[in-house]
Design a protein that fits this description.
The chain is mostly helical. The protein has helices at residues 5-18, 20-27, 32-50, 57-70, 74-83, 91-105, 107-123. α1 (5-18) crosses α2 (20-27), α1 (5-18) packs across α3 and α5 packs across α7. The chain starts with a helix and ends with a helix.
Length: 127
């Protein structure tokens, strides 16, 4: 994909939210199609974050957490749960979000999301 200002901005937001180690790991694919795929998802998904508008990174993070939980995409939920603090989301807000997920997406989705949150917190050395 051609390097554009929009792609550079999307890359910067992705890196600031997910961290260098995660982005570097995802971007290290030696396959040209894999690199193109990374550029595509960066420009589409992270381009939304980079466009500005009325939503702050914190709000976007909470929305992504809610949507990935609702869709049962726990692997992606885990990525965003682990980076939510960098986006300005507090643990207390994530705890409250779990109630919303259980109420509106179903108890199984809420339970699965809570398991992921507990695992992420355990990995960072918290209860």
């Amino acid at each position: 994909m051609e390097e554009s200002d929009a792609l550079r901005a999307a890359r910067a937001v992705r890196r600031s939210v997910l961290g260098d180690a995660y982005v570097d790991g995802q971007s290290a694919d030696p396959d040209p199609a894999g690199r193109e795929f990374q550029d595509y998802i960066t420009s589409t998904a992270w381009g939304v974050w980079a466009r500005g508008g009325a939503l702050a990174s914190r709000d976007r993070s909470l929305l992504v957490l809610a949507m990935t939980a609702a869709l049962g995409r726990m692997e992606e939920f885990r990525v965003h749960a682990g980076s939510a603090l960098r986006a300005g989301v507090t643990d207390e807000e994530i705890d409250e979000l779990l109630f919303q997920i259980a109420a509106y997406c179903g108890v199984p989705a809420g339970v699965a999301a809570r398991r992921v949150v507990r695992a992420v917190r355990a990995e960072r050395g918290e209860a």
